[in-house]
Structures are given as C-alpha cells and as structure tokens.
Predict the structure of Replication restart protein PriA.
Amino acid sequence: MYWHQIAINVPLERLFTYSHPTVLPAGTLVVVSFRNRRSVGVVWAQVEELDFDAAKVLPVLEVLADVPPLSRHWREMMDFCSRYYLYPLGQAVGAALPQGLRDKEGFVAQETKRWYRFNEAGKTAVKEPSLSHHKKHALWQALHSQCLSLRELKQIHPQAAAQLAQYEAQGYLDVRDTPLKMGFATEFVLNEAQEQAKTAIVATLNQFQAFLLHGITGSGKTEVYFAVMAQVLAQGQQVLMLLPEINLTPQLLSRVQERFYGYETAVLHSQTAAGVRSQDFVRAMKGEVSLVIGTRLSVFTPMPNLGLIVVDEEHDGSFKQQNELRYHARDVALWRAKQASCPIVLGSATPSLESWNNAKTARFQLLSLPMRANSQATLPKVHILDVSRLPLEHGVSEPVKQALLKNWQQGGMSLVYLNRRGFAPVLACTSCGHTFDCPNCSAKLVWHQRQNQLRCHHCDLRQAVPPFCSECHDTDLKPLGQGTQRIEEALQEWLPHARIVRVDRDSTSGKQDWHDLYEKIQADAVDVLVGTQMLAKGHDFARLNLVVILNADGALYSSDFRAPEHLFSQLLQVSGRAGRAETAGRVLLQTQMPEHPVFHALVKQDYAAFANQELALRQAYQFPPFAHMLAVRVDAPQMDMAQNLLEQILENIELPEDVSAFGPVPMLMARLNQRERAQIFLQAPSRQSLHKAGRLFQAALLHAMPHQSQWRFALDVDVQDA
Ligand code: ADP
Ligand code: ZN
C-alpha cells in the first residue's frame, strides 16, 4: 500500500491521507470517501511515514482514468492561490476545477480528434440544402469551405455526428486526425503604433514580460493581440485570452474564429454548459486546444504549452471573484505568465491605477495606441454643464432637454446615460416620507414599475407594491430618484414623436432581447437610447452623436477610494460612444461640481492626467497601490456579535509593526440576507507583513469558529470594494 496526501474540497487547512495499491502520480484526480461522502480530490504528494495508525487510512475508491494528472505547474498555481488568497488549498482546487470533474459521477473524455471536410466527390455529389433548413445548410457550407472538428460542427448542427457518419459511409469526406492549420487571414496592415506594439511583444516571446497596452476603444488593441497571437499559435504554443463577460460578444468570437480558423478554440463564460467546460478543460490540458478565450475562471485552465496571455479590459472589476476563492484573474494571470516564461499583455483604455503605476515604475512595459485605427473621427467634445443653480425636471435640465430635441430634429441619435448607483427609484409616501426597506438587508427596496413590484437588488426579495403606506396609511406613494424607466417616460413626453428605447437589465434580461435591440439600432430605428452601464461598452452605433450624462456626482460622494477611478473609466467609455463615424460627437455632462478634476480630465479626454493626479492622492493617503490591503470579514445574526469577535481577535494578536488595522466597522452593505456583517481592514506597505497579519487572523478565526457556529468569516486579499 502507498499513502497519498489528497486535496479535498472542504474548509480545512490541510491535506488528507488515503491509500492505494499503486503509486499515484501527483495531480491525479481520485474519488475518496470523506465523512461518508464520495468526494473528488487531487493527489498532492506521497507520504513515506504515517504519524497515526495505518489501519485507519481509507482507500482511494476510484481513479479518474480519463483525466491526465494535473501538471506540476497547475498545482503550483493552486498552491500560490491558496497561500496568497489565504484560502484552504482543497477548496481553492475545488473552485478552479470545472464542475464536471468534481462530479462523483466520473468523467469520460469525448473523442474529437478528427477534423472533417468534403472531398472532391462530396463537393460534387452533395447538393446544397434549401436555405430554409438553416442548420443543415450551415453544416453543408462549413464542410465545403472549412475543416472543422466534430465539436465545432456540433455547434453548427446538433445532429452533425449522424450526418457525418452517413457522408463518411458514402465516401464523401476528407477526414483528418490533425487540424488543418490555416490561421490568420488579415485585411489590415497594422498602423505604426500597432506595429511598434506588436514588435515589442513578439521580441519577448518565450520569456516573461508584462505589457500594458493603453489605447482608447477602437484604437486597434484587439488587432495587436491578434497579430501576436498568430505568431504564438504558429509556433505551436497555446494562447489564453481573458475578457469580462460583457465583452465576450458573438461579434468578437466570430472575429476570432475567422482569423484563427483551423485552430481549436475553447470558449468559457457563465453560460458554458458544465459538460462542455470539463471537456474543454481536459482538452486544453492535453494540448489539443490552441486558444482558450473566457472570463476570469478560465485563468485556471491547464495549458502545457502556454505561450501568451492577453487580458483585455484589464481594469474591469469582474476579474475579481467576490466569494469563495477571492482571486483576481489578472494577478493570477501575471503569476502564471511568469511561471510559464511567456509575455502577458494587459489592454485597456483606462488601466487600473495598479497597472498604471506598474507601468510608471517600469515593472510593466507601456505601449500606447494614441488614435482610432479605422477612422478620422476626432475625439468627442465634452461640455460640462453646471446645474447647481438650474431647476431639474426628472433630473434633467432645460439645456439638456433642448439639446436632445435639437439633435432629434436634425436626425441624430442620442444616448442618455445614467450612472446606476444612487439612481434606483425608491417608493416613498408623499404624506409622511416613509420609504420601504428590505427586511433582510440594509437596502431600500427598488420600485419596478412594469411588474408593479418592490425588489431588493441584493437578496432578490420581490413583493407587490403595497396599496398604502405602512406608517400613515396614506395611499399616495410616489417614486423618488430617477430610474431609467422614469427618464424614459419623461423623454417620451418631451419628444412625443421620437423613437425612444431603454436599455437596462430589466429591458434586456435575455440574450435575445439584447440581440433584437442591437439589430433595431443598427437598422436606424432608434432616436434616443436611455440606459446604464450596459450601454457604455463595445458597440458602435454610427448615427450616435450626442451623449448626455445625467448624474455622475453620486460616485464622488462615495466612501470607496476607488470611486473616482471607476467613475472616470465609465465616463470616458460612455463619452467615447459619441461620434464613432465621420461626425465628431458631443457629450453633455450635468454636474453640481463643475470644478471637479475628474471632469476636467474628461474634457481633455486625458487618462494619463487623471491617473497621475489620482495616484498622487493615493500616495498621500497611502492607499493601494502604495500599500496593500486585506479585509477580514465576519457575519453573524447580529452586528455586535460580528464586531465583538473581530474586536477580541484584534486585541489578542500581535500584528507586525508596519500593519495598520482599521475597524471593526459595519460593512457598507451592513445587512445582507438576514445576516449582519462587519470588517476590519488591514493595510501595510509590504505584502509579507500583510499576509502574516492575515494568517494570524485566519488562525484565530478558525480557532473561534467551532465554538460559535453562527459566525462565518472570509478574508479578502487585495479587496476591491473597500
Ligand atoms: P480596440 O480593441 O482597441 O477597441 P480594434 O482592434 O477592435 O480596437 O479596432 C477597432 C476597429 O478598427 C476595428 O473595426 C478594426 O477592424 C479596425 N482596425 C484595427 N486596426 C486597423 C488597421 N491597422 N487598419 C484598418 N483598420 C483597423
Ligand atoms: Zn434584501
């Protein structure tokens, strides 16, 4: 018998010993019994000697034969994540493995090592199916013009396998066991700045170097990624590309598929089916997939020949996981690139201040694309409109109203942008001023007019609007604040003949909704768009030439030191929506604080000016990136229980000298789902000290937990929502 230490997905800071008649290599996936339940674990190491009774060691129940052992590199990455994010190794592994591999049902690898296309006989013999048989036609076309794997063909036609079997029997197919690498057809010559960026990156292939590619939307960053990717793929290496979910659009994917046609691509996002995810995971780990594109989770895909990592929109908040293993995909990606000795490119129009600082201190190499790649369009003209003395109607001032009217009369398209925060419509009693709170959370219920419901945006509580005020019984309840729905209605009144469309999570909850809307806009059937963050991203609307920003000020009152950074990034992005085609666009920004430096930088469309100024402030206050930060969070049925526990621990441990502790304080969202939450911020100039402090807290909390099961805790290293 051989003893193995196995990482199991349980909240304990240790590995567990199991026996097996043969030696299992480290990285092997196994099924074991843990507290009488079958669980999947990963072999971490072998043990020579036991410090307890060998008779008590349970056997490994099963070895997952279809999955090769996870590599040393992969295991090192998990060791790093567990250490760095102060999270038990077994649970970190659990968070990184796809569901399908963690399933006790076992995993069976699908055979897809074949690629298909029509041979000459097939091309002449198989007649073009009628276009009304949409999928059949698409399959026929694919077999005609490309050479795809079964997996790819199944995405085109679910019954592709049966059809192929038939064609193969008829002798119509050219079947290959290696893909036909056709790759990289490009219509463009890179411009000078793009060429420089590409050359710099290509010069570092096969060694670690981090690049920050800074350029506004449309400056051609994606083309630079593609050009470098082409080289890496041609060398037979793999590429990992991380994007925020919202940027993983069908448009981008078809751009990738056309460009890298013949290279196996795996796409991974929140909608990817569990089965597909685990198949792709294993395929990537066998080196069968050349290109992995996905959201933060894909950073854990094992890739033995990794040659390049791209992180697009690197500043995006969605790269940080907010529960369980609280990793930052960009930072894990940086670690991974170092380990794999390959370059990593972080791209953004508004880099995070962490990355900007890394570029300033030469840890990253800065590459800039200063202009839009495909048009002469000039930057939008931003006007700051001081509304501190103007009357507002539904949050809109008269000059803005006039501008919208005029633009409509002249046939332009306008975008009315609301910063979502502080804008949710809350129902209030006009007689006593009472508002409705969520019973579970410290949040106001938000009024949803269409469904006539009150909803909590945190715990998703939903209830019908009450017929009268619960305090004074008056029946006159009216919304406060300006939600998108109310603006939409007001606009409809002011511009009765304009075609107005609202875009927010309510109106576009399905993928189809958004697609239909997109088509409608492209077909020129919209005059005014009203919406939130969703509209800031990605898409080009040629006729859009006026952007109105209604409430930017809210974010500047926030206690979060990152609020100005996020605000600037959003405003720059949304103002970039104006005038993407020939005409220069206009941006009107309403504010009560016309002198605020954030707005001045926006007028100049100058990210660097903003970033440098903001970094100076961060340095003065010793905020990240000049110090590192970690939050220790505890929740309990009552706030004082949570705070007392943190208080007690803080008193009893000896923090390293250079670590400052702030709190305990209630979290901004103090009550969530009937639990009350408190936190302490730990801050230090050195990571080592910070982690030391974190580990002290962790140990103390673990020690306290078994005695007080109502408590729950979490540590959030490099916390983003301070
Ligand atoms: P970003 O990723 O910075 O938003 P893209 O790479 O998507 O920019 O490029 C924006 C647009 O410009 C795309 O439509 C792209 O096809 C086009 N484009 C990019 N580079 C060039 C180039 N060198 N010549 C002509 N068009 C280009
Ligand atoms: Zn709630």
